[in-house]
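pls design
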């Protein structure tokens, strides 16, 4: 049986493509995963992401439909190799061979040399993106060559270990790009993104609707009017084109700042960062945050959260974090699943994306802010840090027709929490998410899960098991010394003040009533359905004061920012962050 490394080497030799180019293109498209023959968001298959033009879920996969040739690379690979469409979709070695044949075909069409030098293949690599604009093709090719220079080693979803050795001296011949004769993106200078990254300006529509309502964002003046604390990572649960269509409907009561496409990492911006998008289902987080939507589906997230998308997103987040002074940690770079509900009755409707398949450790590595241990065995708190590729927990719910079926084995950033130090013991409860029912192993249910980068206070250790404080209870996870899934991490921790039996927790830090001007109604400080009991401690992510942004009318002259003086601490209370009043807790360093 041919191994995947052997398949890459053989395909490269057969078609005269430098192996580093073939490996790097595949890595950007699929992270070398095979994905069990399942189609991507762009109807692409296998480690080389060969596309057939059909929308995932449709029955047709193999005949022309008038879409661009870039949507039919599967058919072209079949012509070039003589292989069947089915084998190209399902057999990894055949898929790799088809991808190599395409790259060689693109090189010939450009009149470029069949060179052994990776630098000479820039034009073919750019064409492989299937881009409709020169800037998008160039972004993809530039990332491919960055991978070639850096090198990478990864264990794939099939268990194969593949290595691309670093080649720091490779400098591509970008002049081949002009041979693609692609149009330019309009309005790229309007996009707030790193220098050298070309994004597309696709504005959300802001217009008056009946009864002086409006959609779908608020005009603001951040960070002058409000300090930015958060960048929130979402996934779309929809295809890219549909997602971008929704943002252009002013009556659609949701919005976000950026959308990233899966197969090539293409970036579109819709709302100025200074303005407040409606993306997190928490107005406080919206007013203090920037929302990034990533094309993908939670239950198949690990399948097509591509390297191209990770790399674009990581560079964008680093750019925004540097620009606005947002710390690069999991208290400030949140998943939508980490955002708290404002009030108890909203908790069960809060979102779960990007889900357990988002590779947080890799994402932070790409941002140049790796998640690492910074304590010792005596440190009171830990950071969750499993090996993503080897950590493959049991999940259900990936197949909507068979919700109780086990999901395909795949790397994950999450680990399960139990009531006792045994794997067969029940999962811990989340009384907000499941008031009467038990937590489940559904990929959509994070009631009993912790995720990479989150920090918790250690309550107890027994052999290979570690207990943390979580949602007011003791929660156990398997954490063997020989293969730990958590590492010591120093941080601040909050404990109820002496004499208090418990402390309320909140979904936002509200200003005290005296801070409100007469023309702004006082926002009630409503506790969530949890409490922080005496004797328990939770890690502190940030300290702030109460703030409220009133923007309930189209007339921006009536918008108000209300700031209080009472201090709050953001704590990692469960899977989501929450807030406690400073006067209710004592904060110490671990």
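designed seq:
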């Amino acid at each position: 049986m041919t191994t995947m490394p052997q398949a890459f080497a053989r395909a490269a030799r057969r078609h005269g493509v430098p192996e580093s180019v073939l490996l790097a293109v595949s890595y950007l498209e699929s992270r070398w995963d095979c994905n069990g023959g399942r189609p991507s968001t762009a109807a692409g298959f296998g480690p080389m992401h060969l596309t057939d033009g059909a929308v995932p879920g449709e029955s047709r996969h193999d005949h022309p439909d008038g879409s661009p040739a870039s949507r039919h690379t599967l058919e072209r690979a079949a012509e070039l190799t003589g292989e069947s469409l089915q084998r190209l979709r399902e057999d990894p070695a055949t898929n790799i061979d088809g991808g190599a044949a395409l790259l060689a075909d693109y090189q010939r069409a450009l009149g470029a040399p069949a060179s052994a030098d990776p630098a000479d293949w820039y034009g073919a690599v750019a064409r492989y993106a299937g881009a409709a604009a020169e800037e998008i093709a160039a972004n993809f090719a530039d990332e491919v060559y960055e991978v070639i220079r850096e090198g990478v080693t990864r264990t794939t979803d099939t268990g194969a270990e593949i290595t691309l050795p670093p080649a720091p001296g490779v400098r591509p011949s970008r002049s081949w790009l002009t041979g693609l004769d692609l149009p330019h993106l309009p309005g790229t200078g309007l996009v707030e993104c790193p220098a050298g990254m070309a994004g597309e300006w696709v504005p959300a529509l802001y217009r008056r609707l009946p009864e002086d309502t409006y959609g779908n964002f608020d005009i603001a003046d951040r960070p002058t009017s409000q300090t930015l604390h958060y960048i929130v990572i979402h996934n779309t649960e929809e295809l890219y084109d549909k997602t971008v269509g929704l943002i252009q409907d002013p009556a659609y009561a949701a919005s976000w700042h950026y959308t990233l496409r899966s197969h090539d990492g293409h970036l579109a911006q819709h709302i100025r960062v200074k303005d407040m998008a409606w993306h997190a289902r928490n107005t406080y987080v919206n007013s203090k945050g920037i929302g990034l939507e990533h094309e993908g589906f939670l239950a198949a997230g690990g399948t097509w959260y591509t390297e191209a998308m990770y790399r674009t997103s990581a560079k964008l987040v680093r750019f925004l974090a540097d620009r606005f002074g947002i710390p690069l940690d999991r208290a400030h770079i949140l998943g939508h699943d980490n955002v708290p509900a404002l009030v108890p009755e909203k908790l069960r409707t809060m979102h779960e994306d990007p889900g357990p398949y988002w590779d947080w450790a890799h994402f932070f590595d790409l941002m140049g802010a790796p998640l690492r241990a910074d304590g010792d065995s005596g440190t009171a708190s830990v950071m969750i840090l499993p090996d993503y590729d080897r950590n493959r927990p049991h999940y259900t719910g990936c197949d909507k027709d068979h919700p109780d079926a086990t999901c395909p084995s795949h790397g994950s950033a999450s680990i399960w929490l139990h009531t006792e130090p045994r794997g067969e013991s029940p999962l811990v409860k989340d009384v907000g998410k499941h008031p009467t029912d038990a937590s489940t192993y559904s990929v959509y249910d994070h009631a009993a899960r912790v995720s990479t980068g989150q920090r918790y206070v250690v309550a107890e250790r027994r052999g290979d098991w570690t207990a943390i404080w979580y949602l007011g209870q003791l929660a156990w996870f398997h954490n063997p010394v020989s293969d730990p899934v958590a590492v010591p991490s120093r941080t601040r921790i909050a404990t109820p003040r002496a004499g208090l039996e418990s402390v309320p927790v909140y979904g936002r830090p509200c200003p005290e009533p005296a801070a409100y001007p007469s023309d702004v109604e006082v926002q009630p400080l409503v506790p969530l359905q949890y409490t922080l009991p005496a004797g328990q401690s939770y890690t502190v992510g940030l300290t702030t004061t109460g703030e409220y942004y009133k923007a309930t009318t189209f007339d921006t002259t009536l918008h108000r920012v209300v700031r209080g003086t009472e201090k709050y601490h953001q704590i990692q209370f469960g899977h989501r962050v929450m807030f406690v009043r400073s006067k209710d807790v004592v904060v110490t360093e671990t």
